[in-house]
Design goal:
Length: about 500
């Protein structure tokens, strides 16, 4: 059991940080992996439980869209602010606050008697996720010695990827043996363990040069923009509210988006510095991100619903159906990153989204009672191969296209763009395909797959047209990672904390 003095000394040892292979390293990795793993796990297990939640709470597809998007609205809008708050007020403190918030929100989801309270819990989970996800990487980056950081981040990436892979199995098993409420309940003991480890073993650090003022207006406008646009798309498709109300929500969202751009342009310390988009390559990488992840989000949302509702799969079988995507990414993404480092990102960022689109076309041919090996697996494998080819070079291009001092910001922007694209995709595609209306999941699934296939192919074409240079400075991601829910985030490039718990900037 460590005291506060012990924790202070661990931050000061050698004025360099934690050495790999020490007990301090194992405790730090355990806390950050378990904390981030909660968020990764939750993002996969919830989709598996959606059909059972639909029956239990008596909601339609629109309600299920809100269960998914309630989390994504606040996560997408606040994840960049979460990183800035960690630098300003302390990485361990903000990380712990995020874990505690996520646990309390999970408790609300566990006992929620109505759809409205469940969505409220999911919104609060997104707030916690926005604090703990960048906070966990910041704790690693500031805590470990410079020469050990790549190994620490690689281990974190691989282990959290495993959590994402375990999610469908665990979620399906919990739903089949008990209740959908168990998928939220499992977060409570995990959070308790993380908070205990953080309290006893993690050295605090902060950035002495972090701005005193945070971009709270930008964060609020981002939430209003994403929520308003999502509401308009979901409810217009469902047809359960007057058309005028949906139009008004869309107008509010669009106005908030315009206000957000204005605030970020004028703010001295913007949450999303728009200047990074001055790089044509960075802009191209993010356009590809929008299209590819905007297609991937609806695919993962609708596939699990279709397999349970139309094909008669159990929750466990439906959840495990997409597991090959995660496995392929864990196995192949590192090799893909090394290949892109040699030949440039254009070929893989073109071929990857095209392959994802082909996989979606294969899945559009699913029929009720679809056999997994002959009908589902081929499409899933092609999607997984496409993502494995594209995600690592996409992330590397986003990082290498911005100045090195903005690497953390560039990666955070790319991650935020991916999550926002998934959010809008889940809101828009079911409505466009008629899944939210009379057609239902069985009648609209094929149309939805054709739409997302076209969107993903568009991402490949954007890469082919706009990424004409090979790029002289590709940043290779160390270790394996799973980018199904969004590209992996890169922590800010700061040195380990000095003896006063403050950052020493790398030269």
């Amino acid at each position: 059991m460590g005291s506060d003095d012990d924790r202070d000394r661990s931050a000061e040892d050698g004025a360099e940080g934690i050495a790999w292979g020490t007990p301090a390293a194992r405790w730090t990795l355990a806390a950050t992996v378990l904390g981030s793993g909660m968020a990764f796990l939750d993002s996969t297990v919830v989709n598996v439980a959606l059909p059972v939640i639909q029956d239990d709470l008596g909601t339609g597809v629109a309600g299920l869209q809100w269960i998914a998007n309630g989390y994504m609205v606040t996560l997408s809008a606040l994840i960049l602010l979460g990183g800035a708050l960690a630098d300003r007020f302390g990485r361990v403190r903000v990380f712990s606050l995020g874990v505690a918030s996520f646990a309390l929100a999970s408790a609300l989801c566990t006992v929620a008697p109505t759809l409205e309270l469940l969505v409220a819990g999911r919104v609060l989970q997104g707030v916690g996720g926005a604090l703990l996800t960048p906070g966990s990487l910041a704790v690693l980056q500031s805590g470990f010695r410079k020469q050990d950081r790549a190994q620490a981040v690689g281990a974190w990436s691989g282990l959290t990827g495993v959590a994402a892979a375990v999610g469908p199995f665990l979620g399906g098993w919990l739903v089949d043996i008990g209740s959908w409420r168990l998928i939220f309940l499992i977060n409570l003991p995990l959070a308790a363990a993380v908070l205990l480890i953080a309290r006893r073993h993690l050295p605090e650090s902060r950035d002495a040069q972090a701005p005193a003022r945070m971009d709270y207006p930008g964060a609020l406008l981002a939430i209003l923009a994403l929520a308003g646009i999502s509401y308009a798309l979901i409810e217009a498709g469902a047809g359960e509210v007057p058309a005028g109300a949906a139009a008004l929500a869309g107008a509010v969202g669009a106005a908030a988006l315009a206000g957000f751009a204005l605030v970020e342009t004028r703010s001295a310390h913007p949450m999303l510095p728009l200047g990074v988009f001055a790089s044509a390559r960075f802009t191209a990488a993010n356009l590809v991100t929008v299209l590819m992840y905007g297609a991937l989000g609806p695919l993962l949302f609708l596939l699990v619903l279709y397999l349970q509702e139309a094909a008669g799969y159990s929750a466990l079988a439906a959840g495990a159906a997409s597991l090959p995507i995660t496995v392929l990414m864990l196995l192949l993404s590192g090799r893909s990153g090394r290949l892109a480092e040699r030949i440039g990102p254009r070929a893989q960022m073109t071929a990857g989204p095209l392959l994802v689109g082909v996989g979606m076309l294969l899945l559009s041919r699913l029929t009720p009672g679809a056999d997994y090996l002959t009908e589902v697996l081929p499409g899933v494998l092609v999607v997984g191969l496409g993502l494995s080819a594209a995600v690592a070079p996409l992330t590397a291009t986003a990082l290498s296209s911005a100045p090195e001092r903005h690497a953390g910001v560039a990666s955070g922007v790319n991650n935020t763009v991916a999550r926002a694209a998934q959010l809008i995709g889940v809101a828009a595609v079911p409505a466009a395909a008629g899944v939210s209306g009379a057609a239902g999941i069985e009648g609209g699934f094929a149309a939805a797959m054709l739409i997302v296939a076209a969107v993903s192919v568009g991402g490949g074409l954007v890469a082919f047209v706009l990424l004409r240079e090979r790029g002289s400075r590709m940043e290779q991601h160390k270790g394996m990672f799973c980018g199904v829910s969004g590209p992996p985030m890169e922590p800010p490039a700061s040195s380990a904390p000095d003896a006063g718990g403050q950052d020493r900037r790398a030269e």
